[in-house]
């Protein structure tokens, strides 16, 4: 146990990179553990317009690239490894990866969450090219275009209402004949002249050559198929999917407190129920999952980890 880090960050999305910037800049021995690609969900976003200070034509990859440069400039270490087991019982935390074992005085969990997908052909190929999982991120790209919103819960209906500020028409696609959203939210949607609802329907295929051009719908009661094509003048339309998120909690869900949806519960200092273990970003229970809130979470977690180390470890 010779090589003990002050902070180990699991995950390298905006929350993890932000945490690394703050902890490494504070002269803490910092390690970021990456399972695969760097950047999280934002790297599949072609344009980032709502992150404060974004330069013209900023993209998800370019924003993450600048964050990586900052991380490296402050001296944080980065390793690729898939962590299979963790032990948070001792003062020194232990992580066991496929390649090696790691030890740290504090841990920041920034493993993120992934949106649930429709799971139909064409969806993955057209993400960021008409298929989106974030109205706040992408609504403005569909100004005066038609959009479809898949889902029937609170988030789906709230996002559909938000999209009416930009789209010329919003069609909610729901597999049943009754929405699951709260009645108050439903009432707002029903009163909105831009919103229509396609009941008992699911999307079975999304088509397009580099951009969404059509979608195949199936009636869940009759099995009948129909295909919707983009307006000739528009050339495309949007498909926004809001059927929930899957927090990446498999590594720690038996150790830290999580809510019913599987998100890690923290206080406003990003502290979990285990001393020295923090959580930041989309893995955390929170009302808004955006790059700006992930970065803020990471910064707070790193600062609190520094204070934890100062108070619990003698020089």
From TrEMBL:
<dbReference type="GO" id="GO:0019430">
    <property type="term" value="P:removal of superoxide radicals"/>
</dbReference>
<keyword id="KW-0560">Oxidoreductase</keyword>
<keyword id="KW-1015">Disulfide bond</keyword>
<protein>
    <recommendedName>
        <fullName>Thioredoxin reductase</fullName>
        <ecNumber>1.8.1.9</ecNumber>
    </recommendedName>
</protein>
<dbReference type="Pfam" id="PF07992">
    <property type="entry name" value="Pyr_redox_2"/>
</dbReference>
<keyword id="KW-0676">Redox-active center</keyword>
<dbReference type="InterPro" id="IPR036188">
    <property type="entry name" value="FAD/NAD-bd_sf"/>
</dbReference>
<dbReference type="InterPro" id="IPR050097">
    <property type="entry name" value="Ferredoxin-NADP_redctase_2"/>
</dbReference>
<comment type="similarity">
    <text>Belongs to the class-II pyridine nucleotide-disulfide oxidoreductase family.</text>
</comment>
<keyword id="KW-0274">FAD</keyword>
<feature type="domain" description="FAD/NAD(P)-binding">
    <location>
        <begin position="5"/>
        <end position="298"/>
    </location>
</feature>
<dbReference type="GO" id="GO:0005737">
    <property type="term" value="C:cytoplasm"/>
</dbReference>
<dbReference type="InterPro" id="IPR005982">
    <property type="entry name" value="Thioredox_Rdtase"/>
</dbReference>
<keyword id="KW-0521">NADP</keyword>
<keyword id="KW-0285">Flavoprotein</keyword>
<comment type="subunit">
    <text>Homodimer.</text>
</comment>
<dbReference type="InterPro" id="IPR008255">
    <property type="entry name" value="Pyr_nucl-diS_OxRdtase_2_AS"/>
</dbReference>
<dbReference type="GO" id="GO:0004791">
    <property type="term" value="F:thioredoxin-disulfide reductase (NADPH) activity"/>
</dbReference>
<dbReference type="InterPro" id="IPR023753">
    <property type="entry name" value="FAD/NAD-binding_dom"/>
</dbReference>
């Amino acid at each position: 146990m010779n090589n003990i880090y002050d902070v180990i960050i699991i995950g390298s999305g905006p929350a993890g990179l932000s945490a690394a910037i703050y902890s490494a800049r504070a002269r803490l021995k910092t390690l970021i553990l990456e399972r695969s690609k760097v950047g999280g969900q934002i790297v599949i976003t072609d344009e980032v317009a709502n992150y404060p200070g974004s330069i013209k034509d900023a993209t998800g990859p370019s924003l993450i690239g600048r964050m990586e440069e900052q991380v490296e400039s402050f001296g944080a270490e980065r390793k690729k490894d898939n962590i299979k087991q963790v032990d948070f019982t001792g003062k020194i935390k232990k992580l066991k990866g496929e390649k090696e074992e790691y030890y740290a005085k504090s841990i920041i969990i920034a493993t993120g969450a992934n949106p649930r997908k429709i799971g139909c052909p064409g969806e993955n190929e057209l993400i960021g090219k008409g298929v989106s999982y974030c109205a706040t991120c992408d609504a403005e790209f569909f100004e005066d275009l038609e959009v479809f919103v898949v889902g029937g819960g609170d988030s789906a209906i709230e996002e559909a209402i938000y999209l009416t500020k930009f789209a010329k028409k919003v069609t909610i696609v729901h597999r049943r004949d009754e929405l699951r959203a709260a009645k108050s939210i439903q009432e707002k949607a029903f009163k909105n002249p831009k919103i229509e609802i396609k009941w008992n329907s699911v999307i079975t295929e999304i088509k397009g050559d580099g951009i969404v051009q059509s979608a195949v719908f199936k009636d869940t009661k009759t099995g009948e198929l129909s295909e919707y094509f983009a307006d000739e003048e528009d050339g495309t339309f949007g498909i926004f999917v809001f059927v929930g998120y899957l927090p990446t909690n498999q590594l720690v869900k038996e150790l830290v407190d999580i809510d019913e949806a599987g998100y890690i519960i923290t206080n406003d200092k990003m502290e979990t129920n285990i001393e020295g273990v923090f959580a930041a970003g989309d893995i955390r229970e929170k009302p808004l999952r955006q790059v700006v809130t992930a970065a803020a979470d990471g910064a707070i977690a790193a600062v609190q980890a520094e204070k934890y180390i100062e108070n619990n470890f003698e020089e």
